[in-house]
Design brief:
Helix 4 packs across helix 6 (147-158). A hairpin with a 2-residue loop joins strand 8 and strand 9. This protein has helices at residues 20-23, 26-34, 70-81, 101-108, 125-130, 147-158, 170-173, 206-224, 226-229, 236-249; strands at residues 7-13, 37-43, 56-57, 67-68, 89-98, 112-117, 134-137, 191-192, 195-196. The protein has 2 domains: 7-158, SPOUT methyltransferase, trefoil knot domain (Alpha/beta knot, 3-Layer(aba) Sandwich), CATH 3.40.1280; 175-249, Trp Operon Repressor, Chain A, CATH 1.10.1270. It is 37% helix and 17% strand. It contains 10 helices and 9 strands. The protein has 250 residues and is α/β, with parallel strands linked by helices. Bound molecules: S-adenosylmethionine (SAM). S-adenosylmethionine (SAM) is lined by residues 92-95, 117-119, 121-122, 137-139, 141-146, 149.
Length: 250
């Protein structure tokens, strides 16, 4: 069931047009229609007061690149959210804490968050020190701006809101929900170019299917992301199975 109050996202950016195409398709469009999520995108430039609407300036100390000025950012965030802001203000930055499914779950419990997108060399440090309450990175690489990162956060969090996905159990089955990668999926046709769907999935035996999927999930995680297994909730039998795979490999 959808919550009676939408989770609200206020996004602050210099490029609001980036967001619209993603907001009007698929799950985000449906979540907005259902009232599970409300997304307001604000152009930081609208809060400039000078004739040329300047939002950036050269860095003190020299060096290349431009830095986003503090005044329009403070004015935009406080203009929308009050002073002090009545919602967490999350800066998207490659220097932030890594974004994971656990962080998405944490944010999905909040009624309201603000996402601040940087550009150029990033925001003036005083924004980070005195306005921002959290910093998130979507990975160890550098993007041109925070907009893609904000969309990543918005999408991953929205999927977790009650009533958003058709199958309410889907988020719990997805990769990373319980520290494992998900099992492989197949659909019709049963044979494509001679490649068959595993017999077990066509057997109709739900117990066997569940066991096969669990083992595939373990196997994939062990092969691709063994680092995840240390934190995963595994039975002693599952740990023993992995130990056997390890022995065989040696
Ligand atoms: N000079 C900055 C540094 O080295 O930390 C990088 C600035 S980057 C070119 C411009 C903006 O893109 C950042 O202010 C941030 O908002 C966003 N950005 C880039 N990479 C990101 C990442 N991995 N996660 C989240 N946001 C990112």
């Amino acid at each position: 069931m959808t919550s009676p109050f939408p989770m609200r996202f206020d996004i602050f950016t210099l490029f609001p047009e980036v967001f619209q195409p993603y907001l009007v398709v698929s799950i985000l469009a449906r979540a907005r229609r259902q009232g599970a999520v409300e997304v307001q995108v604000h152009n930081i430039r609208d809060w400039t007061t000078d004739r040329h609407h300047v939002v950036d300036d050269e860095p003190y100390g020299g060096g290349g690149g431009m830095v986003m000025k503090p005044e329009p950012i403070f004015a935009a965030v406080e203009g929308v959210l009050g002073r002090p802001p009545r919602a967490p203000v999350i800066l998207l930055t490659p220097q932030g804490r890594p974004f994971t499914q656990a962080v998405a779950r944490e944010l999905a419990r909040l009624p309201h968050i603000a996402l601040l997108c940087g550009r150029y060399e990033g925001v003036d440090e005083r924004v980070r020190q005195h306005l921002v309450t959290d910093e998130i990175s979507i990975g160890d690489y550098v993007l041109t701006g925070g907009e893609l990162a904000a969309l990543v956060v918005l999408d991953a969090v929205t999927r977790l809101l009650p009533g958003v996905l058709g199958d309410p159990d889907a988020p719990a089955k997805d990769s990373h929900a319980a520290g494992l990668l998900e099992h492989p999926h197949y659909t019709r046709p049963p044979v494509f170019r001679g490649w068959e769907v595993p017999e077990v999935l066509r057997s109709g035996d739900h117990g066997r299917i569940a066991r096969w999927r669990r083992e595939q999930s373990l196997r994939r995680t062990w092969e691709r992301r063994p680092d995840l297994l240390a934190q995963a909730d595994l039975t002693p039998e599952e740990r023993a199975l992995i130990a056997r795979w390890q022995t065989k490999e040696r």
